[in-house]
């Protein structure tokens, strides 16, 4: 059964065209992440799924039921708002049970639900407080609690963790994931945090300027980004984009690199048909930081792996790895290196470039070549 | 060198003192003409002053006379009727109008101006206009008669039992637009997504207003009631223009009572005593309000 189906959704506010033809379909019980930079229309799309914002054109179905023109209360949804949207005049307890009392759930059952939700979210001591007496993170948890008190056919979350501290955020992330496993309810989760997107999502839709750039599993999106925007948006630190010229070699193609220490060629170790017409021209090489590492003896001689010496410009220890910045073709390039193998600024370091996962983009437009 | 330095010092001194110099005149006039005269009035209320002020202490004699005066009790009772009806109806109409205007209807700006317009008039104009409208020989009643409704009577203005209610009508007409503006601002201050959250929770619009929006407007209720009640206690011009306190003294309010005793009937002492009673009433309302306001700002 389909969990949520969005077809050719457009949204205009007056003359501003915010959503420009969104198509998404997920199965019942899927966890969909909408991710994208601020202002790309994520909240707008979520509000349209909820029925809080009218649809300019297109259709929305939840669980095989066309809900495009239904009011929010008839859509069987629960939602957590970006701005919490707690009822200021009610206590936390009343906030959580309000939706239940409207649906005429018996008093006793309401209290049981409140208790269950409060335990899960660790807000039991706050139940008798008013929203004004809570911190941002506590409010966010109450907002979560209000949604979790109900058993809807779809949950909508609008950046529910954005105001929590790092530790609580990781905890809540796990909590939400567990919850999803336990309930098996379809969830749509908006975030602009790509780590949240990668860790939570089964299906990720990356949006920009009201258009879905790519829709797929986290792995697909990470390994096979359709364009430079997606490639740069997902992954931290973000993918390196190095302008370089393509050359033809005996065993396929290669790209020319230059830095203070040396001038060298990175062979792909394979022939890419799409690169054939671009020999001698400049393209963008996309290579993730973890694919540029310190010298590893075991990798020497493997197909597509090439070693080169580069001058270290900046060193950023992160704990498990150290990020080493080198300049390649005039562009600062991040490499993920073992802390023990990192060199000091100004020294030369031997780096191993794994070109097997390298991708290529059109230099100007950023569209994927191969 | 040294003159330059002393000049600079003078400049610094002037700069530091300038704010005080600027507010000093208003501060002094306020001190004399408001608080000074309040004290003077308080003193007069304990003397036997009649046409001219006397300053010999006479104890509570003026208050005793005041409380024995039937006309004072009529005025006090009128204030009670006028005040409660005026405040209640203003709130009711104001909230209703505000909720209707809050539905993002077209021409909202124009409607808001129309409702607010009476505020721009002085109570004198309002009172005079309503005097004509309600005058049986001139306004509404005559109009209805001319339209053929010969049985129609509306003579509250000249009926000493009902005249105080005409004051209520005129007062409500003048002030409910203001209450509407107050509530509209309050409604607009409520985060849109709260209403959306309630919709998702399944609440209809009436329920949302009843359970969430109106309860969270409590501070607005508070301000509206405070402002309306001090308008009610001070009401003077409206009554003067509309009924002149009549018929007889049927529509006297404490303010008109005070005026006629102090300035037209040569009972300065008794007028002063009634003014003190009004001050007490206003203080009883305003002081707790100020206290709670200050406390909440201190709380942050
Ligand atoms: N009511 C409205 N009228 C006009 N424009 C609007 C309205 N609501 C949103 N927009 C515009 O639509 C665009 C998308 O807004 P939206 O709130 O969906 O962004 P978002 O992706 O949720 O961003 P964020 O991550 O900052 O929350 C923005 O450019 C915004 O200015
Ligand atoms: Mg948003």
Please give the structural blueprint.
The complex is a heterodimer of chains A (370) and B (300).
Chain A: E1 2-13, E2 16-27, E3 31-35, H1 42-50, E4 57-62, E5 65-66, E6 77-80, H2 92-102, H3 107-121, H4 136-148, E7 154-158, H5 166-183, E8 186-191, H6 194-200, E9 203-208, E10 211-216, H7 218-223, H8 228-233, E11 240-249, E12 252-258, E13 263-267, H9 273-276, E14 282-287, E15 292-294, E16 305-317, E17 322-328, E18 331-337, E19 348-354, E20 359-362
Parallel strand pairs in A: 3-8, 3-9, 6-7, 7-8
Antiparallel strand pairs in A: 1-2, 1-4, 4-5, 9-10, 11-12, 11-14, 12-13, 14-20, 15-19, 16-17, 16-19, 17-18
Chain B: H1 2-44, H2 61-68, H3 70-101, H4 108-120, H5 123-134, H6 140-146, H7 163-188, H8 192-200, H9 205-213, H10 218-234, H11 237-242, H12 254-264, H13 268-299
The complex binds adenosine-5'-triphosphate and magnesium ion.
Magnesium ion binds next to helix 1 of chain A.
If you had to describe this structure to a student in words, what would you say it looks like?
The complex is a heterodimer of chains A (370) and B (300). Chain A has 370 residues and is an alpha+beta fold. Chain A has two domains: 230 residues, Rossmann fold (3-Layer(aba) Sandwich), CATH 3.40.50; 123 residues, Beta Barrel (OB fold (Dihydrolipoamide Acetyltransferase, E2P)), CATH 2.40.50.140. Chain A is built from nine helices and 20 strands. Chain A has a six-stranded mixed β-sheet with strand order 6-7-8-3-9-10, with helices on both faces. Chain A has a five-stranded antiparallel β-sheet with strand order 13-12-11-14-20. In chain A, α2 runs parallel beside α4. Chain A is elongated. Chain B is built from 13 helices and no strands. The mean pLDDT of chain B is 84. The complex binds adenosine-5'-triphosphate and magnesium ion.
